Amino acid sequence: MPTQLQNRPRIVFDTNMLLAIQQLHIDVFSETKKMFGAKAELLIPKQVFEELRNIDKGEGVKRAVRIALDEIKRCGVKIVDVDASNADSAIAKMAMEGCFAASNDAVLRKRIKGFAGKVIYLRQRRFLEIG
Questions:
Q1: Which of 1, 8, 7, 11 is CA-nearest to residue 121?
Q2: Closest among 75, 63, 73 to 27, alpha carbons compared
């Protein structure tokens, strides 16, 4: 019999979705909680966290990275170890295991939908939608 913890929706975020927090002025974590409820588990693969920290820090991106890292900490997003070679592979692997993948990357979204995975993306640069 599944436990309450196993029934919690798990959402894994891609780097581009995290950068949208500042670039598009959308609180992706709060919006996700509105969609799935307070029990939703927010996750970031270690590969995404490292990718975020190592982005070429031009002036505009530097602020977006800092805000994303602050929001990750403020919202208690869990950073998880995933056995994968890069961020996209880690997200795809987690999606195969039943996580919703929050990404605006068209190639990654298509890859995940190819195996009937669930994707969350930004519609009209303002609204999160499941597709």
A1: 11
A2: 75
49: which residues sit within 8 A by CB, 6+ positions away?
72, 79
Regarding pTM above 0.85, the answer is yes
Residue span of the structural domain in which 11 resides: 5-130
What whole-number distance in Å separates Cα of residue 98 and Cα of residue 9? 9
Residue 115 maps to which CATH number?
Answer: 3.40.50.1010
DSSP 75: T
Domain count, the chain: 1
Longest dimension (CA), the chain: 51
pLDDT tens series, the chain, 131 aa: 344 445 789 999 999 999 999 999 999 999 999 999 989 999 999 999 999 988 876 667 888 999 999 999 999 999 999 999 999 999 999 999 999 999 999 999 999 999 999 999 999 888 899 98
